[in-house]
Design a protein that fits this description.
This protein has 53 residues and is mostly beta strands. The chain has no helices and 3 strands.
Length: 53
Protein backbone atom coordinates (compact mmCIF):
# COMPACT_ATOMS: atom_id res chain seq x y z
CA UNK A 1 0.00 0.00 0.00
CA UNK A 2 1.23 3.46 -0.86
CA UNK A 3 2.00 6.10 1.75
CA UNK A 4 0.63 9.62 1.35
CA UNK A 5 2.30 12.82 2.49
CA UNK A 6 0.63 16.08 3.48
CA UNK A 7 1.91 18.86 1.23
CA UNK A 8 1.42 21.38 4.06
CA UNK A 9 3.19 19.83 7.06
CA UNK A 10 4.75 16.65 5.61
CA UNK A 11 2.78 14.29 7.88
CA UNK A 12 2.90 10.83 6.32
CA UNK A 13 -0.21 8.65 6.33
CA UNK A 14 0.95 5.03 6.33
CA UNK A 15 -1.94 2.62 5.68
CA UNK A 16 -0.08 -0.16 7.47
CA UNK A 17 -0.20 1.91 10.68
CA UNK A 18 -3.48 3.78 10.14
CA UNK A 19 -4.08 6.81 12.34
CA UNK A 20 -4.87 5.48 15.83
CA UNK A 21 -5.40 8.96 17.29
CA UNK A 22 -8.14 9.52 14.67
CA UNK A 23 -9.63 6.04 15.20
CA UNK A 24 -8.41 4.86 11.79
CA UNK A 25 -7.48 1.20 11.98
CA UNK A 26 -4.24 -0.22 10.63
CA UNK A 27 -4.69 -1.51 7.09
CA UNK A 28 -7.05 1.31 6.03
CA UNK A 29 -6.17 2.50 2.53
CA UNK A 30 -5.95 6.27 2.01
CA UNK A 31 -8.74 6.03 -0.57
CA UNK A 32 -10.99 4.46 2.08
CA UNK A 33 -10.60 7.28 4.61
CA UNK A 34 -13.77 9.30 5.13
CA UNK A 35 -14.06 12.25 2.74
CA UNK A 36 -14.02 14.68 5.67
CA UNK A 37 -10.86 13.14 7.20
CA UNK A 38 -8.16 15.74 7.77
CA UNK A 39 -4.47 15.67 8.55
CA UNK A 40 -4.10 15.00 12.28
CA UNK A 41 -1.20 17.48 12.49
CA UNK A 42 -2.31 20.55 10.51
CA UNK A 43 -5.95 19.89 9.54
CA UNK A 44 -5.34 19.82 5.78
CA UNK A 45 -7.98 18.05 3.71
CA UNK A 46 -7.35 14.82 1.78
CA UNK A 47 -6.83 16.70 -1.48
CA UNK A 48 -3.70 18.26 0.04
CA UNK A 49 -1.99 14.84 0.18
CA UNK A 50 0.22 13.29 -2.48
CA UNK A 51 1.65 9.83 -2.91
CA UNK A 52 5.01 9.69 -1.15
CA UNK A 53 7.84 8.87 -3.52
Amino acid sequence: MEKYICTICEYVYDPEEGAPDDRVEAGTRFEDLLEDWTCPVCGATKDMFEIEE
